[in-house]
Design brief:
- Helices cover about 25% and strands about 15% of the residues.
- It contains three helices and six strands; from the N terminus they run αββααββββ.
- The protein has a four-stranded antiparallel beta sheet with strand order 3-4-5-6, with helices on one face. A two-stranded antiparallel ribbon has the order 1-2.
- Strand 5 (about 160) and strand 6 (about 170) form a beta hairpin.
- The mean pLDDT is about 75.
Length: about 170
């Protein structure tokens, strides 16, 4: 068909979009295709409900009930803060003073017990070992020959003392 020179072709009008067909979910035993079973859809719906309930602060309660019931839970009260323990010291002079007191208590105990040293802190306190806040005291070895003790503070500052060799320093004598 030929156009006259005076006639213009009609303007292009795109076709109207057709409505999408409704989604169909059917059971496909062969596993092929993109169809989902009713069980999968039910599970997805259940997960969505539980997720929405969790987002809203509602917990689901199940058990012997025929259907779970939504229960609003109150926020748990925060526990009261316990008394903070005394922190360990960073002062090397306090650590050395505590170590000297521990050595003095060991020597005092040995004097009263036929030259035998002890690992018992209770017995050493009975010999006059004072309390040292912020310092960790420990007896690593004690026998008739001598003892190995340590005093520790914060940041892994530990000083050891060996009565047999006379060593005092950061390396263990245990």
């Amino acid at each position: 068909m030929a156009f006259d020179t005076e006639q213009q072709p009609p303007p292009y009008v795109p076709p109207a979009p057709s409505p999408a067909p409704p989604a169909t979910f059917t059971y496909a035993p062969s596993g092929g295709g993109r169809r989902l079973s009713g069980r999968v859809i039910g599970m997805v719906a259940a997960v969505a409900v539980v997720g929405a309930a969790a987002f809203a602060g509602i917990t689901m309660r199940g058990g012997d009930d025929p259907a779970p019931a939504a229960v609003q839970t109150a926020p748990k009260p925060k526990p009261k803060a316990a008394a903070k323990p005394v922190g360990l010291t960073k002062d090397p002079q306090k650590i050395k003073a505590a170590l000297k007191d521990l050595a003095t208590a060991e020597e005092s105990y040995a004097t009263d017990n036929d030259g035998m040293y002890t690992t018992s802190m209770t017995k050493l306190r009975a010999e006059g070992l004072p309390a040292h806040e912020g310092v960790r005291l420990r007896v690593h070895r004690a026998d008739k020959a001598g003892y190995c003790i340590s005093a520790g503070g914060a940041e892994r500052v530990v000083v050891y003392f060996d009565s047999v060799t006379g060593y005092a320093g950061p390396k263990s004598c245990a």
